[in-house]
Structure formats: structure tokens, C-alpha cells
Amino acid sequence: MADFIKNPVVELPERNPAPSFPASELVFTDAEKAQIAEYVERYPTADGAIMRALWLAQEKFGYLPPDVIKLAAEEVGMPYAKAYGVATFYTQYYKKKMGAHVLDVCTCFSCQICGGYDMLHYLENKLGIHKGETTEDGQFSIQEVECLGACGSAPMLQVTNGSYVHNLTTDKVDALIDALREGKSWPFESVTLPQDEDDLGGNRRTDVTATETYQTPPASETIA
Amino acid sequence: MEAKSGKAGDWRSYERVLLPKVKDYHQLEVYEANGGYKALREILTNDKWDPTAVTNEVKKSGLKGRGGAGFPTGLKWSFMPPVVEGVPRYLCCNGDESEPGTFKDRQLLEYNPHAVFEGMLIASYAMSLAGSYLYIRGEYADWITHMEGELKKAYDKGYVGKNIMGSGFSSELVIHKGAGAYICGEESSLMNSLEGKRAYPRVKPPFPAQKGIWGYPTTINNVETLAAVPYIINRGGAWFAGTGAEKHPGPVLYGISGHVNRPGVYEYPTGMLMTDLIYEVAGGIRGGKKLKAVVPGGSSTPVLRADMIEGVTMDADSLREAGSMMGTSGMLVMDEDTDMVSFLRRITHFYHHESCGQCTPCREGTGWLENIVTRIDEGEGHLRDLDLLVDLCSEMEGRTVCALADAAAWPVRYTIDRFRSEFEAKCRASLVSSGIDLAEVSA
Ligand SMILES: Cc1cc2nc3c(=O)[nH]c(=O)nc-3n(C[C@H](O)[C@H](O)[C@H](O)COP(=O)(O)O)c2cc1C
Ligand code: SF4
Ligand code: FES
């Protein structure tokens, strides 16, 4: 056998992967099925709905092992192989089981020069894991990610594909971890435009509780 | 400081339109109370506005795309082929916003979602489309949820959907949620993503207007581009054309980040002096430090040294002359302490990570760029690496399916060109540490 077949350079998907969930759990409820059917309605062909269906599946099952991708593909009505290709293309779909809270720390561009790596390393030290790993209690995973489109409030991170946490400092990271450990979710932070501070006396939204203003991180933020 | 003037006129007295001084403008009721959906009603009910008239008004405004390439929007709309009965046509609004340093679309989506919807609907009318997609990057999950709530309100009010405002014109609007891939911002990749495929860019031609999503005629515009459209209809193309720089007019959202005292998204006319933006608007460099470098419009636009920005204004022509580009107007400001080598290293990592892998020069080239810049940054580089990097850029530029390879090469080419001594210093340090006689190698 050629060497590359025994030792493939890329990780090949299992041909007959062991089931990740018992068959009884690996089902969509009627409401979920109806939701996926509604997604399918939005596109000229059913395939367009696969991204939403995968999102729904990931929210339900936590991650997207092959059997979950297959379930979503079947519900949408497209070939499993094609859905697998989609699921593996995008970084936000988790291909392996993650911690209950996934901390996506931005270290790109603006965040880099505003202390993104300081925040990443602080978190790694605090949780005792490296980026790409999950804590033993299954609570936290850390990932280093590319620009999340919040460069003005750098450094920042995102919690499990959800809340943005802006203007990170070590104190704020501590508060975040405490809150998540207590089972609280981090509120949606609306970032006030500097012009609104001048013209409207602060945030223009009266329907959010947490607000942040743009600020430059202190130049001297260094972590032992 | 001596008074200097850009092409923006007196920007201090500029009244914001995209993000006006109105609390809760993102809510439908407030948007309506402040003239929202008036432009849509006007074009749908007033006979003077046939689709061509709308496109002409946008042409007259001189609006150029805010997604990075700066293509004239009215002209792009007029590329759509004539309507053929039974052949659907589409609009995609590009809200993928993943270019490092760019964060203005997110604020626009949060604070003025209805202008985006209204602009999409006006564009749909101008190009006779029965449907449009708003593609938003998956990371913006919270904003997608907010916008879906507002979109539902607009549907309930009859601004979107069947027989809009009783005019007989119907147009559907769907929000599509991405899942994390920078390349989806590239327009043909975005179309593949919408179709439920891996988001590989397509070979052009055929261009989207000929063969777009599901093979049908399609136009792609940025979020900020489309949000400007209702205001162009309300105030007239001439108003827009008369705001800011003559050849690149209009209000624009500047996203300023990095080492400034007051970072953030600001709405001002185009054609502002870059120095005004940095020192007046954004409050100057933090900690009283000196300016070192500016990236004017997202990570792919060439970096400018502090001594290169005097008198430069924020419009395509002036920035081109200065040796850079307007890009997405997401401006990164760096102070004197910034290490340009490790800065470039992180950028090369980004493009390597985000290359979709279809084209060899890009897939391999971005990896080599990262490896070599990393080697220099780690103190193991050679002086000849600098020329090697520039050669590599030449092998990547213009040889690939999409412009990501160019976007990856430009920062390398220009950062080395403009900060060569810093790169050389790191290389020389590595020579010294490996015991090589500097006198022998320095040319
Ligand atoms: C690699 C790459 C990434 C891009 N990312 C974005 C993006 O995130 N948002 C965007 O609006 N345009 C992006 N563009 C530009 C789009 O391809 C397209 O030109 C633009 O959306 C057209 O809109 P406009 O004419 O209104 O500017 C990107 C282009 C390339 C080559
Ligand atoms: S240039 Fe790069 S990102 Fe663009 S299609 Fe080719 S490999 Fe993909
Ligand atoms: S660089 Fe971190 S959010 Fe843009």
C-alpha cells in the first residue's frame, strides 16, 4: 500500500463513524422540523437552507459530528457528502465537542496591537489550558480567532458564537469567567458611538441594559 | 495647529444622516416617525420614478461602493440584463464584514437596520427584482436576532413582501446567517455560500449580473452602500454628490481603531484630511505618543508611514496618490512603539488562515508569506528573505481566482517597502546571533 494511504497527510473522515448520540436522541422534534421546512422555503433550492439547519443542529446537539450533519442534511433534503463539505468549510461549526463556554479571543490586527495576546495569555493562565483545548471539567474552551468586526473596542472576545465582550481588561476577564461559572449569561453590550456621546448624551438605544463606550486600552496593560 | 482644509468642507458642522441624532432610530416606529420608508413610498407611488429613473438618480449621486472596491453603484445596477419573463433576479447585500480593521457595518446594522432594508427594497425596484438576500456574518448572531425582529415588523407593516404599500410591486427579503469565513465577503464566494455550497470564489467572467446565485442575474452591494440609497432618493442625488470629495462623494462611516484616544465609528463626509480624523476626531495618539503608521481602509490596504499622510484626504484619488487605498475606511492607527514586523506577521497569519485553498499561488503563497515573516520576527531571518518575500508577492498578485491573494500580498510588499529598516534590523540581529560577520553581508 502506498505510504500516503496508511499515513494520510490530511485527516480523513471515518467511513463508518461510531454514532455520537443514541438513535433515540438523534432526531429533530416536530417544531424543529417545521423550522427547517420554513428555512427551506426561503431559497429557490433546498440546499440554501443547510447553513441555518446546521446552526439549528449545533444549538441542539452542541457540535456537529458526522451523524448530526447527516441528520440535518436529510431534513433539508440534500446529500450528506455535500452537507459535510459545508459543515467543514466554516469555522463556527464545531466539528468536535467543545466546552460549555467557548471563548473566542480575537488577536487579529487591531486587537493584536491593543493587547489581544495579553488577554489570550491571561485567559490561558487563568484556566490552565492552551488555545484549542478544553478544561477538564468541560466548562471552557479557548480559541484564537480572526477579526470579529469590533476592532474599535479591542481587545475583545466572543462567548460561544454569541455575546461580544468588548474592551477587555484582566478585571473584565475575571468578571466574565465568574459570571459564566455561576451559570449566568453575558448581556448584549451595545457600543456607544463617540458622536452619540456628544450629541445624545450616551447610548442611543433605550432597549439594552449593558452599554460600552469605545476606549483605548491602557498602554501599560501587561500581565505577569 | 495651522488650519488646513480637506475636501470635506467644514466637517465640524456636518449633520449626520446614516446615524442621525435620534434615540432608538433602529426601531421601526422611530424610523418611520423620522421619514423612514418615505423614499420607498415615493418611488412606488409617484409615476415619475420608473426603475430607470431610480438608477439614474443613484448614478447622479456618484455613490461608490463602500465594500472595498469602490465601484460606482448606479453603474453596477445598470449592468443587470433586461428583464425576461419568468427568469428570477436577485440582490445580495454584503454584510460579511470580515476585513480586519472594519467594524462600521456592524454598527450600521445595529443602529439603522431599516435603512438597509429600505435601500435593498429600492434597489430591488430599480433592478426589477423579486427577492433579495442580506448576508450577515455568523459571528453577528445577536445583531441578526435584532434585525430579524425589525424585519418582521417591516413585513407586518407591508413594507416588504407582497404588493408593497398597495403599489403592485412585490419583493421578499431574507436574512442569511454565515458561519465564519472571511472569504464569504468576496462576492462570488458569497453566492456559493448562499446556495448551500462550500464558499469557493468563482472564476469571472461570467460576472454576477450575467450568472449569479442559482445562475440568475445578481447584484452584490455592501451594507453601507445600500443604506445610503434611501437618503439619496429623499434628498436627491445632487445633495449626495455635493457632500465630501467631488469624485468620491457622500457621507461615510469611518471606523477608527488602534492607538488613538477616542476610537470608534464616526460619520463624516468623504475627503476629510486624514490628520483631522486622527488628531481632531479620534483625539490624537494615546499617551501623548507619536504616530508611526496608518492603515487607511482595512488590513489589505497598504500601510502609510506618519510622514506620508500630510495633506492626504480620505477619498480614492488622494489615497491612491499617497500610495494606498480607501478600502473599507476602517482605519488603524499605530503609535511609535508598534513592532511592524510582528504586526505584519499577524496579518500574514490571517490571510493564510482565510485562503480558501483553490488556487496554488494563494494557498501555498500565503503559507510561505507567513512562514518567512515569522522566521524574521523570531530572529531567524536572512536579509535575502526580504527580496524573497517581495518576489513571492509578485508571483501571487493577479494570478488567482479572486483578489484574496492580492489582498494578502499588498501588506507584505508595502510594509517591507515602507519599514524596510525595521525588517533589516531583525534580520541583522539574527545574523549577529549566529556569529556571521556583518561587514561581509551588508551591501
Ligand atoms: C477577499 C475579499 C473579501 C471581501 N470582503 C468583503 C466584505 O466583507 N464586505 C463587503 O461588503 N465586501 C467585501 N468584498 C468586496 C466584494 O467582493 C464586493 O466587491 C462588494 O461587496 C461590492 O459592494 P459595493 O459595490 O457596494 O462595495 C471582499 C472582496 C474580496 C476580494
Ligand atoms: S485567491 Fe485564494 S481565496 Fe481566492 S479563490 Fe484563490 S485560493 Fe481561494
Ligand atoms: S481585530 Fe479584533 S475585532 Fe477586529
List its salient traits.
heterodimer, A: 224 residues, alpha/beta, Arc Repressor Mutant, subunit A, Glutaredoxin, 2 domains, 4-stranded mixed beta sheet, B: 443 residues, Rossmann fold, Ubiquitin-like (UB roll), 5-stranded mixed beta sheet, 18 helices, binds flavin mononucleotide, binds iron/sulfur cluster, binds FE2/S2 (inorganic) cluster
Write the topology of this structure.
The complex is a heterodimer of chains A (224) and B (443).
Chain A: H1 3-6, H2 30-41, H3 50-61, H4 66-76, H5 80-89, E1 101-106, H6 109-113, H7 116-127, E2 140-145, E3 157-159, E4 164-165, H8 170-181, E5 189-192, H9 194-200, E6 210-213
Helix pairs in contact in A: 2-3, 3-4, 4-5
Chain B: H1 28-33, H2 38-45, H3 51-61, H4 73-78, E1 90-95, H5 104-111, H6 113-126, E2 131-136, H7 141-156, E3 172-177, H8 187-194, E4 218-222, H9 223-235, H10 237-241, E5 244-245, E6 248-249, E7 251-258, E8 264-269, H11 274-281, E9 291-295, E10 304-305, H12 316-322, E11 330-335, H13 340-354, H14 360-377, H15 384-396, H16 404-418, H17 420-433, H18 438-441
Parallel strand pairs in B: 1-2, 1-4, 2-3, 7-11
Antiparallel strand pairs in B: 5-6, 7-8, 9-10, 9-11
Helix pairs in contact in B: 2-6, 2-9, 3-6, 6-9, 13-14, 13-16, 14-15, 14-16, 15-16, 16-17
The complex binds flavin mononucleotide, iron/sulfur cluster and FE2/S2 (inorganic) cluster.
Flavin mononucleotide (FMN) binds at residues 65-69, 71, 76, 94, 96-99, 183, 185-187, 220-222, 225, 402-404, 407 of chain B.
Protein described:
The complex is a heterodimer of chains A (224) and B (443). Chain A has 224 residues and is α/β, with parallel strands linked by helices. Chain A folds into 2 domains: 30-89, Arc Repressor Mutant, subunit A (Orthogonal Bundle); 101-222, Glutaredoxin (3-Layer(aba) Sandwich). Chain A is 38% helix and 11% strand. In chain A, α3 packs across α4. The model of chain B has no long low-confidence stretch (mean pLDDT 95). Chain B has helices at residues 28-33, 38-45, 51-61, 73-78, 104-111, 113-126, 141-156, 187-194, 223-235, 237-241, 274-281, 316-322, 340-354, 360-377, 384-396, 404-418, 420-433, 438-441; strands spanning 90-95, 131-136, 172-177, 218-222, 244-245, 248-249, 251-258, 264-269, 291-295, 304-305, 330-335. In chain B, the strands form 3 sheets. Chain B has a 5-stranded mixed beta sheet with strand order 8-7-11-9-10, with helices on both faces. Chain B is globular. Chains A and B meet through α3, α5, α6 and α9 of A and α5, β3, β7, β8 and β11 of B. FE2/S2 (inorganic) cluster binds next to α6 of chain A.
